[in-house]
Fold:
Amino acid sequence: MTTAYHSTLLFRTSSRCSKGGCVEVAPLPDGGAVVRDSKDRTRDPLMFDSHEWADFVFGVKNGEFDF
Structure:
């Protein structure tokens, strides 16, 4: 991902993030998403295509990541 493209993304942080150690998510036009670490925005973000992102969201909603 180029820095120019990265700077045009609109990242959002969860309203439940209270200690600054959260991830930020930006939607991509194709339905995918970019995820970055809010503590270190200089690190390369993780990119997910629309299918990967949909699978992840489905898993979250179905409790696959609950501990």
In short: The beta strands are 12-13, 23-27, 33-37, 46-48. The chain is about 25% helix and 20% strand. The two ends are 32 Å apart (CA to CA).
